[in-house]
Fold:
Amino acid sequence: MHEWALAESILVAAVEAAEKEKLKTIIEIKISIGELQQIEQDIFEFALGEIIKSQGGKLKNVKTIIETEKSTLKCKNCEHTWDFSDMKKKLNEDESEAIHFIPEVAFVHTRCPKCGSPDFEIMSGRGVSIISIRGER
Amino acid sequence: MEARVSVIEKRLKNIKRIISVASGKGGVGKSLVASSLALNLANKGYNVGLFDLDLYGPSSHVILGVKGQGFPEEEKGIIPPKVHGIGFMSVVYFTEDKPSPFRGIDVSNIIIELLAITQWGSLDYLVIDMPPGIGDETLDVIRLIKKSEFLVVSTPSKVALAAVSKLLKLLKELKIPIIGVLENMAMTKSSFIQNEVGKLGLPYLGSISFDKNLEESIGKPDRLLDADFMKDLDKILEGINL
Ligand SMILES: Nc1ncnc2c1ncn2[C@@H]1O[C@H](COP(=O)(O)OP(=O)(O)O)[C@@H](O)[C@H]1O
Ligand SMILES: [Mg+2]
Ligand SMILES: [Zn+2]
Structure:
């Protein structure tokens, strides 16, 4: 359940940003999770809820909205583009799970489906970020 | 806004000291020093973690004899598996030791992910096995691990020192704590490195002799603890209260 660690990072970052903006309470956090992270949304939401409950404060009445950022991979060698569902077809369970922990090991376990190059780029679909925060001063 | 960076400080909060074993040069013995330092401190009864940050050429797992043990256990993050009493984290748990062709931005993302999800717990020491040079990993350690101190390794060669002194100058400029410079693989008596380190106004910590039997201890922590390499290292550590 490393979802918990990522959920915590969202809330720490949100409180930090709220302090900077002098917000007294945070009403809403819009979260984006890269598709490659393959986050279990249920677990992630549960973790957010638990941390919010135990931490209270600025987060007491916060609503969280989670969006998945679709993945786009682009080959630097042949310019072909593809996404995670294409990639997944060739992955075994362990490889897929490894990418769930660290999306960048995609470069270790997969190749460009067209030319076989490992030199591609993750254009989108990794990481955990905050799209927006709403709150009251 | 990237969220993972914010939680890193919290993950490292209960670690008393973080020592990055670094060098401007490859092949000088950083991984041997880092692994041996972790073993040495754990053997003295301290709580120790070892983090292999050499993502292209991880070696600490080879030195400690870690193989094929699957993904780390998950508990509010990932728990570094214990190896000879050391909490050991490395990218090899996720790469199956296959080649890792990462570019700089990917290296940074991996470091951020690992720092954000690894639950080290309370440690007396976290030792970081750094890759050579002053690229992404070094810059990310400086950016993300504010309390890291550097232990810098060089060989007696002018060639090594040329690269090592660049790292030293950068760390000095950025006012990063430098424990000192350790000379490794000494074959003859020479004060060249000591003098050069002195000119930079930095501590010279001592030298480790070339240990012709060292290879036999690779992958065998028990033997490594008894190796001549470790005896030399132990003397150096005594001088800096480690
Ligand atoms: N004092 C020493 N005596 C003999 N061999 C050494 C010594 N220090 C390091 N080595 C060997 O040199 C090689 C490079 O060491 P390593 O720790 O991998 O360097 P780095 O991490 O700086 O690239 C390894 O094979 C290691 O066993
Ligand atoms: Mg090394
Ligand atoms: Zn291609």
